[in-house]
Amino acid sequence: MKRIAVLSNAIPDAWLTPCGVETVRQFDYTRYTPVPLRAGMCDHLAYLPALLEDVDGIVLTTSCDQMRRGAEWLGDSARTFLFDLPATPDSALLDIEKARLARWVERMTSRDCSPNRPQKTMPSDFGEPAWSAFNIGIIGGHFCGDVALVHRFFERHGIGIRLWGCEGGEDVGDICQRPNDLFYIRLTQLIEERNLDGLVVVRTTWCDLWRAAFARIREVVPVPVTEWVTDGQRTGQPFPDTRSATCLEAFCEMLNRPTVSLPLP
Amino acid sequence: MYFLNTKNGQLKTSTKGPLPELDALLPFPSCLPPAYQGAIARHADMGDVRLSRLAYHLSPASHDLWNFLMTEEERLHDARAAHQTIVGAMKDLGTIPILVDAFADAVAFYPDGAWWLPCFKEQQTCLLEATDALGIGEGFCPVRAMLGAFELKCHFPIPDLLVCSTGAICDDFKAIVQRLVERGHHIHFWQMPHVRDAENDEPALPLPNGRRVPAALRDIVEHGLRGVLQTLSTHLGETMTDDKLRDAIRRSNRVRTALSRIRNGNLPSLERLICEMLAIHYCSDYALCEKVLARLADESDALVPDETRKPVYWINPVADLRVMNILEDAGGRLCGTDFMFAHALALLDETVPPLQCLAEMALQDPMAAPTSARMQMCVQDAERLHANGIIVSRIPGASHCAFELLALAHMTSLPVLEIEVAPVTDPYAPSLLTRLQAFVENLRPASQ
Questions:
Q1: How confident is the model at residue B34, as a pLDDT?
Q2: Kind plus residue range of the DSSP H or E element containing A181
Q3: Quick check: A126 pLDDT over 90?
Q4: pLDDT of residue B125
Q5: Please, what's the b/e burial string for A192-216 (b: 16 or more CB within 10 A of its CB; e: otherwise)?
Q6: Quick one: which of A15, B23, B63, B423 could link to B118 by a disulfide (CB 3.0–4.6 Å)?
Q7: A105: which chain B residues are within 8 Å (Cβ-Cβ)?
Q8: Cis peptide before A240 (omega within 30 of 0)
Q9: How many angstroms separate the CA of residue B119 from the nearest CA in chain A?
Q10: Helix count (H) and strand count (E) of chain A?
């Protein structure tokens, strides 16, 4: 079975799995050797050449300019598919792109990918949510590190992750729509439903969309929010890097106030 | 024609000089209404201090050009006083203003143009502080100044309607306009698809720029433009017809014709940049723009190229106008450009249904195309114009700039230099000059 890396939550499995391909959405990026990038390019792109070696194909979307241009930079049009994802409710473009995606997968698998074929539901990659006294959500763009290490880091500080909403994780809505009010409505609902105490927004240095969204998230959500710039997490280096660790530890301490205080003299 | 150097009665190259020398040309018969005439120095005195540090093409037509550019805010306020509807077109760089011009009582401008404000004000403005406070900091392209201008309600009247293309556009802009929405500005968004090449199994549409794109994309853009028309019609209470749209397209073509002459002529680099920038919305006045450009085109036709300077092709507009002077100080001159809106310069096909014509124009937006397609067109243009080299001018923070040199590197044998231009380059102007000099002095004519 062909393995297709799908790099956007906006592309559901249902558009691909009728063709009998396996979709992969979360990766241990520490397994991949990053290539050097020019200043201004999203750090996530550094891992894609190695990822392409590991799967049969990659689906990217035009939801951000970095991915749009990154797909072209990556080359190999037979194995790289750029899905033009409408930023407005434009069903005509969506239909064209779905059909084109089906044709691309069909070429790859030589199977009939018509939408009438029965769809296979993919199991969730995410197990039962962790329970801690304090829980946070982590949302954002692509996280180019080891998710298990993130869980371990926060657990060490007494914080559980009850929402993993980075790209490839749970669907927290689409920040790339214009306007994107629905994203903030959904996010606020998720915070309430999961009883989250805080939120971490992950982005890379050159990610304009999440950087701007961070400012808005702070304005609208009822819990503390911090930002985590994840560039340059490379194998063999401390995780998170020193600066990020200091920020995240301070955030954890703020959330995780001791419930027992010293007796007053 | 005292504005040209002449030798033995032969036309010669442009004479350049500082602002006092440009203003010393006054009085002369101007093509502008009296309210927009006068010394350019008055704009510098009112805060546009960058004007004092530029070297100008010394001619009355050039003087009118600068006055026309610097009085746009006055024209917009005049339009508001005359109860015209002001439409802020954003990002598409050329298409929506033609639609707006088809209506009797509407005028369009690009708030995006605020990206030059930090340059004109030499950063002596609170715009960027206001933008920083909204989370749109230095990592974004200088177009973020637009958000500050909206926030502080200065530099242009807040438009009655805002229209913005979205989809295959820069991330910076997509992020910034969303912040505008969050600050209470309603925006009519329309979808700009990624303009890819047609696949073998898709009906293809040949575009005038030589690309073959999926025919279905035209329908998508046309649908988006219909939505914009509907919004405009409802707001203005005016029914739009094909005849009115055709008239607007014809007016646009008259301006494009004048611009084409200027692009093929020998105006100095700075004035050439300003003229091309007028293409996107005609500085809020089609008729006046046509007069200003026609006069400059006559002059441009009469100028001969300055053979002491080597012709270079320039990619991307500069956030600091002074860099155009620096290029010439370094021994170069513009012979061709891609300032990100080639679709606003090419003549429009008046024989096809007007919305189809405008949709096809929008599909030629180089920024909606793959980087390699845009760079390929730049290379063809540079070779056609006998450029000796290509300069890629990076815009700080702009998402597309990181990829341009990568795409260009393997496409041409012409020498390529990449620079980055901030809104005010003074702190590193000496090194920029040296860099440009080192590049230019090694350029050889393309045929050698």
A1: 96
A2: helix A181-193
A3: no
A4: 86
A5: eeeebbbbbbbbbebbbbbbbbbbb
A6: B423
A7: none
A8: yes
A9: 22
A10: 7, 8
